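Message: I would love a firmer grasp of how sequence relates to backbone shape in proteins. Thank you; the sequence and its tokens follow:
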Amino acid sequence: MDRKEKGTLYRTELIAPCHFGLESVLKREIDDLGYEITRVEDGRVFFEGDAEAVVRSNVFLRTAERILINAGSFHTETFDELFEGIRAIPWEMYFPKDARFFVTKAGSVKSRLFSPSDIQSITKKAMVERLRSVYHMEWFPETGASFPVRIFIHKDEVTAGIDTTGESLHKRGYRKLKAKAPIAENLAAALIMLTPWKADRILIDPFCGSGTFPIEAALMAAKIAPGMKRDFTAMEWKNLIPEREWTDIREEASGMIDLTVDTDIQGYDLDDEMVKIARANAKAAGVDHLIHFQRKDVSGLSHPKKYGFVITNPPYGERLEDKESVIPIYRTLGERFRALDSFSLYLITAYEDAEKALMQKAAKNRKIYNGMMKTYFYSFPGPKPPKKRTGAGPEE
């Protein structure tokens, strides 16, 4: 019985794109789910999986952009070679006769073929030609489930991926209201995961905006899967992924949630409206009871306890004339951080003079591309807390 007859997706290669510079974090997540990594490229992690892996990775991965089925890869230098390469891919293994199939995006980097519109057009024609020869149909109604295809060409190597996700995975479903320049949910989660923060440690974001850092931290603390409250394109693919896969894995995710976890997660913002937005978003995410939001300037950053974390996305002056205005903000943040006993500071910014303005040298500076914007993730780790003593007697 072949794949199409059985109605399930057998073992195949899946692709998980992510922000450039955060491949190691996503790789660790996929490893933790138990799937074998086949290779890692800039902004993409490839791994082996099946129908269950498609569902599980969409529901559980916090740092990926989306999950693609790698339908085929080949070398091309001309549009004729592109047409033949696409036509050679067995699209009938994925698309039923009534499938709505289309090229939702085409990208090209350092390749001879560079026109996205031409790549999209030729890819669609080649897919139609292939399916005509297999299904013996001259016209396709395209009234069934949607199968979006993404074409990526890098150094003349084509990768054709079928998008199982739909809207990017950073759209968890809780952020109904946004700040002016919000950090993406999956980027915030990845940055938290680059730090040693754990659910039993303090976390403060003094520039919380719409609350993304505190909310993502709270979701991790409560073990809430990021994809639990949203739909995915592949949920319509009854020919490949049985509906029970979605039901079973969401039930599994639901059983893992722990809303009784004790947390100390705080978010500050000088804008009272932003604080209201952050609270509304946290409530939509189901973690509002785990976070304390308040209107406060960064000059009020403090905490009575030790060994906490400040993880934040401060203003960085997008325009040249704004650069000078952010210096006092960074200066104050640096002063307040040094006043915090044994805390660690982690911040992402596009402001290249951040260390100078903070008046502190970072232990590590990681370059991360937030879309097309080059940003820097600065690490100022504090001392590790002493290990908890075990086996102490009642008097101790």
Remarks:
- Confidence is low (pLDDT under 50) at residues 1-6, 392-396.
